[in-house]
Amino acid sequence: MIADVISDAGRRMDRAVENSAAEFQTIRTGRANPALFERLEVLYYGNPTPLQSLASVVVREARTIMITPYDRSAMSAIEKAIRNSDLGVNPSDDGAVIIVNLPELTAERRKEYVKLARNRAEEGRVAVRQVRHKARETLARIVKDGEAGEDEVDKAQAKLDSMTKSRVAKIDELLAHKEAELLEV
Q1: How far apart are the first and last CA of the chain?
Q2: What is the pLDDT tens value at each position of the chain, 185 positions in all?
Q3: CATH architecture of 34-101
Q4: 3-state helix, strand, coil in the chain (%, to 5)
Q5: Which residues contact 9 (CB under 8 A, 6 or more apart)?
Q6: What is the pairing mode between strands 98-101 and 64-69?
Q7: What stretch(es) of the chain map to CATH 1.10.132.20?
Q8: CB 121 within 8 A of CB 92
Q9: Please, which residues have CB within 8 angstroms of residue 32's CB and are 6 or more apart in sequence?
Q10: Angle 2-25/107-144 helices, nearest 10 degrees?
């Protein structure tokens, strides 16, 4: 019972770390990255549709991304979605593909992205701590119901705390890497 609670908490914490890593991927750096467009939704025939469902996104050069729609009738909708996004880019199309040139980031914009990365990291830390909190509640219920002794639960809580600490450290490591990437000129 206790082992199940600990392993479930570990899986949930790992998912929170993976989610934080995915969030960091969507933050723009000086280089082109297809992950920038992962969360972009296009209004396609009146329905919000993920860009990956409508087009392939490929890095063509260091700061150029090429988007090839599967359906050419979606070109204008894709362009509009990119233009209206918070990426700060202006797409252009040549009739077959959409080209997105990522401009060099200004120092001010880099600092904004660092703040955004820190906020996303804090969200990840909070998610990990919430998992710990729920697992502690479950362990307390196990003791209350008499299904396990307090010593066993204390050991499990210590393990839970060490798992939390390692996951938070991993998120901090990801954040440090992202900040270095953002501030690199």
Answers
A1: 51
A2: 778 888 889 999 999 999 998 888 877 676 777 777 777 888 888 888 888 888 888 888 878 888 888 888 888 888 888 888 877 778 888 878 888 888 777 788 788 888 988 999 999 999 999 999 999 888 888 888 777 777 888 888 889 999 999 999 999 999 999 888 887 76
A3: 2-Layer Sandwich (3.30)
A4: 65, 15, 20
A5: 131, 132, 134, 135, 160, 163
A6: antiparallel
A7: 2-25+106-183
A8: no
A9: 59, 60, 61, 62, 63, 64, 65, 100, 102
A10: 170
Distance (Å, whole) CA 25 – CA 147: 43
Report the candidate in 134, 148, 125 with the shortest Cα–Cα distance to residue 3.
148
d(CA 171, CA 49): 30
Give me the CATH topology for the region 2-25+106-183.
Topoisomerase I; Chain A, domain 4 (1.10.132)
